[in-house]
Amino acid sequence: MALTEHVIMRELDVPNIADFNVYLQHDGYVAYRKALTEMKPNEIVQIVSDAGLRGRGGAGFPTGRKWSFLPRGVYPRYLLCNCDESEPGTFNNHQIIDLNPHQLIEGVALSAFAIEAEVAYIYCRGEFATAVNTLEHAIEQAYAAGFLGKNILGTGVNIDMYVHRGAGAYICGEETALMESLEGKIGQPRNKPPFPAVEGLYRKPTIINNVETLANVPPIVLKGVDWYRSYGTQQSPGTKVFSLSGHVNRPGNYELPFGVTLRELIYSPEYGGGMHGDRPVKIIIPGGASAPWLIDKHLDTPLDYESVAAAGSMLGSGAVMVMNDTVSAPHLAYKMDEFFKHESCGKCTPCREGTHWLVKVLHRFAEEGHGRAEDIPVLHSIYRQMQGNCFCLLGESAVMPIKSALALFPEEFEAYVARAASNGHDGQNGSAKGKPVIALQQR
Amino acid sequence: MAEIIITVDGVQITVPDTMNVVDAARLAATQIPVFCYHPRLPAVGMCRMCMVAIGMPRIDRDTRQPMLNEHGKPIIQMFPKLQPACTTRVADGMVVITNSEEVKFAQNGVLEFLLTSHPLDCPVCDKGGECPLQNLTMEWGPGNSRFDYSDKVHFEKPYKLGDLINLDRERCILCSRCVRFQDDLADDSVLGFDQRGRKWHIISKSDPPFDSKFSGNTTDICPVGALTTSDFRFRARAWELTSVPSLCNHCAVGCNTTLDMRHNQLQRVMPRDNAAVNDIWICDKGRFGHRFIEREHRLTTPLVRRDGQLQPATWDEALDVIATNLRAIQAAAGGAALAGLAGEHLANEDLFLFQRLFREVLGSNNLDTRTGVPGEYALDDVGYQYGVGVGTNLMDLGKGTAVLVFGADPEEEAPLYMLRLRQIVTQGGSLIVANPRPTKLDRSATQTLHYRPDSEREVLLALLKLVSAETKQIPQRTTGGAELKGTLEQTKLDAVAKLSGLEQAALAQAAQTILAAEHLLIVYGADVLVHGASLSALLANLLILRGKVGLANSGLIPLLARGNSRGALDMGVRPDKAAGYAPLKQAGLTAREMWPAALAGKLRGMYLMGSDPVASYAPARAALDALAFLVVQDTTLTATAQLADVVLPGTNVAEYDATYTNAERRVQRARLARKVYDASKPNWEIVQAVAQALQGELVLAGAASSTTVTRTVGGNGKSGDGVQGKLTLTTSTASPVAAQESWDYITVGEVAADIADLVPGYAGITHTALAQTAQTKEWGRQANEDYFYDGTSYTNAEGVGLQVPAGAELPKATFDLTPPPATKVPASSTYPFALLVQTLAYRNDPFLHDSLLQSHIPAGYIALNTADAAQLGIAAGAQVQLTSAAGSLRGTARVVPDLPAGCVLVPGGLVDLPVATIQTGALTRVAVSSVAE
Amino acid sequence: MRRGGEKESLPSRRKHTAMLKETYATQIESLLARYASPRSVVLPLLYIAQDHYGHLTEAVINEVAAILDLPATAVFEVVGFYTLYYDRPVGRWMVQVCDDVPCCYCGAEELIDALKQQLGISEEQTSSDGMFTLQRVKCLAACQRPPVVQANLSYFYDVTAERADAFIRFLREHADTPQGKSVSGYYAEDYEPDAAGNFRLIQRRLATYQPAAASNGHGPTEPDPSPPAQSELSESSPPTSAEGS
Ligand SMILES: Cc1cc2nc3c(=O)[nH]c(=O)nc-3n(C[C@H](O)[C@H](O)[C@H](O)COP(=O)(O)O)c2cc1C
Ligand code: SF4
Ligand code: FES
């Protein structure tokens, strides 16, 4: 399924495309120039709709449709590019900025034009200090070349673009929390409705899209709907940059058309190159920490939104984490929920308390190596108390690891209980009887 | 707002479509538990306690009509997840299920989560017994928890958020009600959260911490015992308290309160719901500033001066001395030799009888509530004549309402009005704030006008000119139109702009707002009140031109000094008008005129009730010393009382049942909350006893018993020239004693009934009528409110008050447009600066004694504009001297950028900087100089 | 953001000598011009303040609040909520090791143990010489090259336990570089081990930026008089192979 040309990871086709001149020599800003000089904003919205571009930030929501929710005639509008990329296992936005930043900037500018926003902010997670530097540098080049600013290319169009740096909070990737953060507040999600398209940043109509989503826009506008739809599936057209990590031989970002199977991604020598030490696949998390787990029997699932959903998980951010048989399910659930606990903003009770208690109880299994029989129903209960009751999707996501672990590997929890019992452990407050086995990958 | 039908647990009800599901369900007597939701705050949906199942009729895509099942009923499609009821708005056909297993599991789950972090220290928690968390746990809680209790949230226990409020972070359930109250309602964003996740906790980083005049309200709306007051801490358990309806008398808002009593002692003050007055809030002065009720050193018995000393006496002795002496003076020099001063905090019943005593028994019109200190408020008749109409309810105002705040700082002068005016803006109204200096209300204003001091008159004339230009037809029953026209013709907008420093466009914008308003409210305060009618009449003219007089929700609201300032004016405790603003043939002396009259020997005897002129106006002392006879009735031995010949022990608001009239002329009733101290008596009873004693004297006199009185008191420098004379009263010609027979009130209600009969406008305002509670928009309107909002506020079951019609509402009222003459105090080269005196909420006020607020009274300062300070070479913190024609004063300089040039701002009412000593009148001009260290 | 002129004036850990408002007047101005509300400048300004003073004391937070005319509590909230603001003294290098999935299964725990040993401190502590503060953090979005560490927000890839030594050595040697001085990461760069196990800069190409052409008045950054390392790269250096796939 290898691509002969890349839509996003064009650095593989064109060396040094991060160089502004190189980018310009290779169709850089051609789509943008064409849009500004020859097209109307809503034509671009239409093209993006027709291309079937779906948001890469997690939900896979059709981008053109999202853009069409903007209330007519209400200005100013804002475009926000979501580069908070903090979901464990997800690292493709990071690489797009490192290696192909101008395509992102062109995409943001082009999309701002399409939705008639005069200001666009790229919200980068605070840890991306290097990426912020890269972007600011590249934006300056775009300004210098006259692609940004006032009266761009003499068309009367104004677009300003700024990078806004977060400061360490995964929740700020949630669109409304991101807006709060951009407004200088603590990053906690807002109630919806009103939805951002109606009332977003500064209570003005706002569109928010992921980095990869927006980087898709220039090639779509340049090469057309049919070209774009020649990749991927009917429902999930185009390509996706999959972030492959874990116990595979070649972790990394791989741009492939939607519909490639997990097996191909993991085992193809061009991509994952197989499992480390040829150990078996035990757990696959196909869409970032928030996605329900899959197991080896799902290896032939095609990676598109519908198929992964049919397999009981979600494609999410396209972060594929693969764990081999050295990883214990309770431990993986523990680590994942530790992440969610760390990032819970505190606003709503089920997430704030639930993640705390999940980690607390899981710690007994995963780190102390023993559990109590009564802990298992408690774990079931905690996630049920959270599920469907949290304010935002962070809390809902925190349910997935423990729910998956309990559903797929109940015997591992029971084994810990049994072991604790056979060690004469009362499971109350004794010390750890040795850590569970955790694989250390040799590099 | 449309009415729609929803179904809650199978019960169909009709509700307004603006409601959320929580409120709507409660109308159907179904309780959905809540923590973060509070009906007075925007819903946020944080706590997730209110999760319910919600469905909507399935709509046919083609017909846009609900699809029906085989029984012809709409097919209901349930949302896949439970929904928070607090943030979900009702919609037509909505189906709400609150009692399914799924819902119970979710609500149970949230409660269990909350309890796992909560310390469960109910036995030592002030909130115990009125705690929504306790209440809801009983109803919705899990029986027990399966979690380790060893992992509660731990924080250092009580943590002071300022000196009024304690925070127990362990108890906090992070509902953010307090933070949202401070941000959204009070506009003091001094509370916030630190950290995140389970470490999230409340902080206050203002300087001083929790710097807000409304902080106490957060302790009410806190659904657990996380926020409690230092004032009530560990004083009593909620269930031991007896709650007595009362009123706050500190300012003209007249907030409804309850006094929570135990063992005849005040434990705390809580707000009592009154939508038209204070909603469910009170300010910190109302909450913490009532320790005066149980002050130490209360007077417990009458005192009579014997051998130069005030000594305990019986009531009979005291009244006898009073009657004898007052009669003697009256006989010798006539009623005009007698005068009375009464405090504006006293009840209508007290004041009504007081003026009757003077007018009917003693034959004197020398009455006042003021003390004659320069710069005090003039008698505000305009505020009565053109006051807001009967039926005004600030709660209802929003879109279509314009509020003009002129020369007022509501946050300081009448704090609760600040919340009410902000609410009007929140609800879509316009707010113009016009002052010489910035105030906090500016932040909420839709337009601010900062005019130069002493250009008020011109600014108002300019507004009138702009408004009258758009006024086609002057309303009927109006006089003075020609005079106004003449004055407006001479008013030149460009000249006003130049004088006032306001842009002409700004004036035009304000005029447009006024012209566009359906309801027009004009709030004025200290800066206008000191000038009397000369400014307020111009404000009234705006209303008259707009035809907004005598109407509900339009009119003037003067921020008078005290809780019953309006009542005192209504009752006629003033030299120039009888009760109900009836004109007098011959006016008496004003307070300011009394002092020279006393020094000149023309005034011989005074009776002061709840008035302490010596404290506020030092020169009064010599005049009081010069009197032949002085009676002081008060609750403590004030500086003035120490000079008296007889001291009578009176009562405060908690100790008798009586009525008070607020700035909007709403008459409200406070109840007897505690037994009086020993021999002290309700103030009105004392006045009646004095009257009766005088009548007895009269009878005695009529029986030809004559008494010679000599003022024997006087030692220690008192000029005891005494009054000598024969009392040979045989007829009643000396005093109009027409009402003699009526000095036989047995209950205070009878006095109120007399007021209702005799004072125009008070008809029908009896104690019984005042005890009635209107049903609309009151706090306790919904099922089992206390369960959820326990400890928030008291449901008002004891009366929300009745409004007295404004003068303009009377049938034959005419509206006078004649502009009053200008009263200007021009600047001179000797005194180039205008002195602005700021009224502070927290000042040296005897009523704040013994309260926690004492430490909130600032040290005095003299504020100067940055440029002026630079020019004078004065640095912040330096000593400066102010000199006026009346004297000079030294204080510490503050340099502020936003004060207009050419003026100095000094807080009033502070003992360390008695600015009154240099005031010369309504506007004082001063010279500023730096003092060499 | 590269704040050119500031570089010299950034000997970090300065005490309260200068006022932010004056020192960074142009920057604050240009930041304010970016947003519809001055409150949006809180996060960027806190970064500036943090680098200027070393960490965010109460006085500093109040200073930021005053500059933006915000209630102090609002700024304290922000400092408390976000993990990259330090309200306590931290070492010259803030060493943040990702211990999340997948790093934790690829050597992160072993690395943390090694670092603790090396530095003689445990998590959240600062070494006695004030050079290092060690912290565990969650996923750093670089999972293809675990274990991943950030030091003053410069990325270090493939930091296995065996490379802990080289890593610490590198940081010590580079303590006085702009990277070492900016705990907020203004000059952050990315590093990887070479064949010998020593850390070296990952060279990416962005170059050909002409400052003269940029002076078209657009706000956010000032022309950079001394472009940092990244733009001094030789024209021919290719992107590192490991970056792609
Ligand atoms: C807790 C949470 C974290 C998220 N983090 C990110 C993120 O880092 N990047 C991102 O693009 N979207 C993230 N999202 C999804 C965004 O809310 C939003 O849906 C997305 O940016 C929309 O862009 P798209 O339509 O292009 O996918 C997150 C959502 C949640 C609930
Ligand atoms: S689920 Fe709740 S606590 Fe968790 S991040 Fe969302 S709002 Fe915050
Ligand atoms: S979420 Fe509805 S009451 Fe808290």
Question: What does this protein structure show overall?
Answer:
The complex is a heterotrimer of chains A (443), B (933) and C (245). By secondary structure, chain A is α/β, with parallel strands linked by helices. Helices cover 41% and strands 12% of the residues of chain A. In chain A, strands 3-4-2-1-5 form a five-stranded mixed beta sheet. In chain A, strands 7-6-9-8 form a four-stranded mixed beta sheet, with no helix packed on it. Chain A is globular, with a radius of gyration of 23 Å. Chain B has 933 residues and is α/β, with parallel strands linked by helices. A seven-stranded mixed beta sheet of chain B has the order 16-15-29-28-27-17-18, sandwiched between helices. In chain B, strands 1, 2, 3, 4, 5 and 6 form a six-stranded mixed beta sheet that branches. With 245 residues, chain C is α/β, with parallel strands linked by helices. Among the domains of chain C are: 20-81; 93-201, Glutaredoxin (3-Layer(aba) Sandwich). In chain C, 31% of the residues lie in helices and 10% in strands. Chains in contact: A-B, A-C, B-C. Chains A and C meet through helix 1, helix 5, helix 7, strand 4 and strand 6 of A and helix 3 and helix 5 of C. The complex binds flavin mononucleotide, iron/sulfur cluster and FE2/S2 (inorganic) cluster.
Assigned CATH superfamily of the domain at 93-201 in chain C? Glutaredoxin
Summing up helix and strand content along with how strands pair, one would put the structural category of chain A as alpha/beta
Residue stretches of chain C low in confidence (pLDDT < 50, at least 5 long) are: 1-16, 208-245
Q: Which spans of chain A of ≥5 residues are poorly predicted at pLDDT below 50?
A: 426-443
Structural class of chain C: alpha/beta
Rg of chain A (CA only): 23 Å
Shape of chain C: elongated
Chain pair with largest interface: A-C, 94 and 79 residues
| Major sheet size, sense and barrel closure of chain C | 6 strands, mixed
Strand content of chain A: 5-15%
Bound compounds, please? flavin mononucleotide, iron/sulfur cluster, FE2/S2 (inorganic) cluster
Proper CATH architecture of the domain at 93-201 in chain C: 3-Layer(aba) Sandwich
| Main sheet record of chain A | 5 strands, mixed
Tally of DSSP β-strands of chain C: 6
Q: Biggest sheet of chain C, strands in spatial order?
A: 2-1-3-4-5-6
Mean pLDDT of chain C: 82
Q: How many strands appear in the DSSP assignment of chain A?
A: 9
CATH class of the domain at 93-201 in chain C: Alpha Beta
Average pLDDT reading of chain A: 94
What is the fold named in CATH at topology level of the largest domain in chain A?
Answer: Rossmann fold
* Level-2 CATH architecture of the largest domain in chain A: 3-Layer(aba) Sandwich
